[in-house]
Amino acid sequence: GAVVSQHPSRVICKSGTSVKIECRSLDFQATTMFWYRQFPKQSLMLMATSNEGSKATYEQGVEKDKFLINHASLTLSTLTVTSAHPEDSSFYICSAIGPGQGNTEAFFGQGTRLTVV
Amino acid sequence: GENVEQHPSTLSVQEGDSAVIKCTYSDSASNYFPWYKQELGKGPQLIIDIRSNVGEKKDQRIAVTLNKTAKHFSLHITETQPEDSAVYFCAASIGTGNQFYFGTGTSLTVIP
């Protein structure tokens, strides 16, 4: 299947700093990517939908100024957590709509474990 | 919007037995139903999916069934093995680049 690469897999940062997470579709072009946040033993919570060349669509309750999303190309979307605080510590996962039948299949990155100290 | 419910939240089976996980959805417009397996500390991995024009799909030990009328779909794993232990998520989508709505997950433990 299609491959989505997410980097870094783990990051530790100090409170007040910003962290950038990259999501790349390695062997296909993805016009749409999604960013999720996952708390321990819980399901994936959609944060925003990222569309190449346009502004991201954020879910209700997600601060767009805190979680900056840039979908600069058909193979790369980035999530920047600005002025991170300990409560932002979580597992962040991206997914990209793959080239499957009807452009419906989603493939996930490996996830990024963010710890803010 | 779409609401996906998943049961059970935890499931333990003996190695070699079958495991069944069930999901229901609310939006009749949903037409794509994937299942994901997530191992600890990793992203979800697509294991099987089914579209609304099909009632059943099988891939080796894994099968998925869909009942559009009742709006529910199920994952069936036969001859379970310890490496099947993971968290499984169902999802629903209306397709064509739209977002996925996930179930709450099922933690499956296969006891050797």
Biggest β-sheet of chain A, characterized?
Answer: 7 strands, mixed
The topology string of helices and strands of chain A comes to EEEEEEEEEEE
Shape of chain B: globular
Helix fraction of chain A by DSSP (H/I, runs of at least 4): under 10%
Amount of helix of chain B = under 10%
Q: Alpha-carbon distance between the termini of chain B?
A: 41 Å
Nearest-angstrom radius of gyration of chain B? 13 Å
Percentage of residues in strands of chain A: over 45%
Whole-angstrom Rg of chain A: 13 Å
Number of strands of chain B: 11
Main beta-sheet strand count, sense and barrel state of chain B: 6 strands, mixed
SSE order and pairing:
The complex is a heterodimer of chains A (117) and B (112).
Chain A: E1 4-7, E2 10-13, E3 19-25, E4 32-38, E5 44-51, E6 57-58, E7 67-73, E8 76-81, E9 90-97, E10 106-108, E11 112-116
Parallel strand pairs in A: 2-11
Antiparallel strand pairs in A: 1-3, 3-8, 4-5, 4-9, 5-6, 7-8, 9-10, 9-11
Chain B: E1 4-7, E2 10-14, E3 19-25, E4 32-38, E5 45-51, E6 56-59, E7 62-67, E8 72-77, E9 86-92, E10 101-102, E11 106-111
Parallel strand pairs in B: 2-11
Antiparallel strand pairs in B: 1-3, 3-8, 4-5, 4-9, 6-7, 7-8, 9-10, 9-11
Question: How would you describe this protein?
Answer:
The complex is a heterodimer of chains A (117) and B (112). Chain A has 117 residues and is mainly beta. Chain A is 0% helix and 52% strand. Chain A is built from no helices and eleven strands. In chain A, strands 2, 4, 5, 6, 9, 10 and 11 form a seven-stranded mixed β-sheet that branches. In chain A, strands 1-3-8-7 form a four-stranded antiparallel β-sheet, with no helix packed on it. The radius of gyration of chain A is 13 Å and the shape is globular. Chain A starts with a strand and ends with a strand. The model of chain A has no long low-confidence stretch (mean pLDDT 90). Chain B is mostly beta strands and 112 residues long. Helices cover 0% and strands 54% of the residues of chain B. Chain B contains no helices and eleven strands. The radius of gyration of chain B is 13 Å and the shape is globular. Classes of the chains: A mainly beta (117), B mainly beta (112). Chains A and B meet through strand 5, strand 9 and strand 10 of A and strand 4 and strand 5 of B.
